Amino acid sequence: MNKNYKTAFLLTYITIGYNILEGLISVVWGIQDETLSLLGFGIDSFVEVLSGIGLLHMLLRIKNNNGQTSDKFERTALRITGAGFYILSVGLIAGSIINIYTGHKPETTIVGIIISVISIITMSVLIYNKTEVGKALQSEAIIADANCTRTCLYLSIILLAASAGYELTGIGGIDSIGAAAIAWFSYREGREAFEKAKGNLICSCGH
Predict the structure, then answer these.
(1) What is the pTM (predicted TM-score) of this model?
(2) How far apart are CA 202 and CA 197, in angstroms?
């Protein structure tokens, strides 16, 4: 196998494994600390695992036959991923409205700060390496995936802003606003996943 393809596969495995670990920690601590933004961030990570599996399948297809047309497995994975993002965005918006109405405040958002900083560093490294591999292989799909990973970087920045903002001010609404912002990006990711399933986009976000 070409060295660059090996690197592309490794980066995809790292992305999937990281999202699983990040999702588990974020969901558990999001529930324990009652922070909606961290919980939403964690669920988003799990949905991104499905996107990563679809990307892995795509890499195998391209490596084996250089095909650029998505197959049934990829389109099905994208539709499931898109539906997951839509459901998440609705849940987060509803939760944000309820939390603001009731004046709910998280116990703490320290874990959110830690996870977001780690994620920002990880996503930045993945973006750089995916871009380099994509250029080496002259693969528009891999380069597009690197660009889409920027959405995941933005989500991490939102989580950091919401978590740090709450710790500094104690205003519970900041956590809810952060969750609503994550919901917006989740909606966009869902829309892009469905567009890709129709063959209108090269990729959806890879977390």
Answers:
(1) 0.87
(2) 9
- Reference 125, options 160, 159, 162, 152; nearest CA is 152
Predicted confidence pLDDT, tens digits, the chain (207 residues):
578 888 989 999 999 999 999 999 999 999 999 999 999 999 999 998 888 888 888 888 777 765 555 667 778 888 888 899 999 999 999 999 999 999 999 999 999 999 999 999 999 999 999 999 989 988 777 787 787 788 889 999 999 999 999 999 999 999 999 999 999 999 998 998 888 878 755 444 444
Whether 144 and 127 have beta carbons less than 8 Å apart is answered as no
Out of 1.20.1510, 3.40.50, 3.30.200, 1.10.10, select the CATH number for domain 3-197: 1.20.1510
The answer to whether 35 touches 175, Cβ cutoff 8 Å, is yes
Distance of CA 82 to the CA centre of its chain: 12
Token pair, residue 118, equals 């780690």
Maximal C-alpha separation, the chain:
57
Is residue 203 a contact partner of residue 196, using CB atoms and an 8 Å limit?
Answer: yes
